[in-house]
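During the reporting period the student researcher (J.K.) took over the structure-prediction task from the postdoctoral fellow and processed the backlog of single-chain submissions. One of the processed entries is reproduced below for the supervisory committee.
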Amino acid sequence: MLASIKIAFQAALWSAVLWTSAQVVSAQELKEPVADPVAFLQTLTNDMLSAVREHRTEIDKDPVVLDGLIKQIVFPHIEFNYMARWVVGRGAWVKASPDTQTAFVDAFKDL
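J.K. obtained the following structure tokens:
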């Protein structure tokens, strides 16, 4: 039961992150411009749910498997660099060294 709640929470959280990302990032900055964000999110959600169903036994034994699926299915569609710059703020971002920026983006992905 607890694993199901965790999966539902993570799915809702990543849906919110993706929706926010789709709203914040301009079409010019997206890796693949999305004509219909709702359809895109529905497809991505279905892909994620299918993967969860397929790997259910593995996830129940080791929840880290779910993290791997999220990184494999969802992460390629998130503009982490843009989101990190937005969170930090333009002034602080341009003052940070490239190593600091990279470290922040990597930490941001692990949230």
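The committee noted the following: The first helix runs from residue 2 to 24.
J.K. will present the remaining backlog at the next meeting.
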